[in-house]
Every structure is written in structure tokens, then in C-alpha cells.
Design a protein that fits this description.
Length: 143
């Protein structure tokens, strides 16, 4: 039996005025259609994670000037213990500052700013659902 290769994913946690920016997945382009997530995606071979998260912010939101503030958390997902995960993966969350840039939903059907309470009421993809309490704590600290 062949073991599935694990993938590395980065996710940008972008906070402004006590709210977090989340994008809604396009059902025609991805699994978890219409679920909400923080912007991000797969890390390319030999690409540093911090570079990958800024690339994803550019590609998904059209924001050219952004800065990685800090690494927040990492989570492993395994198909054996997470039935909704197809391949093993590690998701790395980074706090990213986009300044006053106005993000656009270039690869999503929608994007919005949510409070912690609003975020907890959403259908989140597994990675964001697992880190929702951590994001909520950041929102309260930055309110």
C-alpha cells in the first residue's frame, strides 16, 4: 500500500479593527464549496512558508504589499483521523499585515470581515475550524 505524500499549506490570518478577513470558497473550483477560510494555499517545492503565505495573499486578494508578522500555529491533519481530509497535510497559520490595502476576492466567491462571534457561526474548512479559538483570542486582543 502506497503512503500518500503529505502537503504543506499556509494560511494568512489578517486582522483589522477587531475582525478577521475570511474568504468563501468557490464550489466549482474546490472541495468545501461555500465554506469559509482564511486566505492561503499549498507551499511550492523549496518555497519558504513565509514567502508562500505572501504569494497566496497576492494571488487570492490582489494585495501586493503585505508583511508576515509572526507564525501563530501549525496543525497536522490525517485522513485516518479526519474523515473529510483526502491527503495528510500540515497547515501553518501566519499573522499577516496588509496595511490599509483593500483585498479583493480574486479566487473566492466572497470575502468579508468577521468578529469572533460571527466567525464561530460560519461553516469553516477543517483547518480554520481547528484554529477558530486561537483566531478569536487574537481578535479580542486586537479589538
Amino acid at each position: 500500500m502506497e503512503t500518500a505524500v503529505s502537503i504543506t499549506v499556509v494560511s494568512a490570518v489578517i486582522i483589522r479593527k477587531g475582525c478577521v478577513l475570511l474568504t468563501q470558497r468557490d464550489p466549482s473550483r474546490s472541495d468545501y464549496g461555500l465554506f469559509w477560510e482564511s486566505p492561503g494555499g499549498k507551499v511550492e517545492p523549496n518555497e519558504p512558508e513565509a514567502v508562500a503565505v505572501l504569494r497566496e495573499v497576492r494571488e487570492e486578494l490582489g494585495v501586493e504589499q503585505a508583511e508576515v508578522v509572526e507564525h501563530l500555529a501549525s496543525f497536522d491533519f490525517d485522513p485516518d483521523t479526519n474523515c473529510e481530509i483526502v491527503r495528510p497535510c500540515t497547515v501553518h497559520f501566519y499573522l499577516v499585515d496588509i496595511g490599509n490595502a483593500e483585498p479583493l476576492p480574486l479566487e473566492a466567491v466572497d470575502l468579508r470581515w468577521f468578529t469572533a462571534e460571527e466567525m464561530h457561526a460560519l461553516k469553516l474548512i477543517p483547518g480554520n475550524a481547528r484554529f477558530a479559538d486561537g483566531i478569536a483570542a487574537l481578535l479580542r486582543a486586537n479589538a
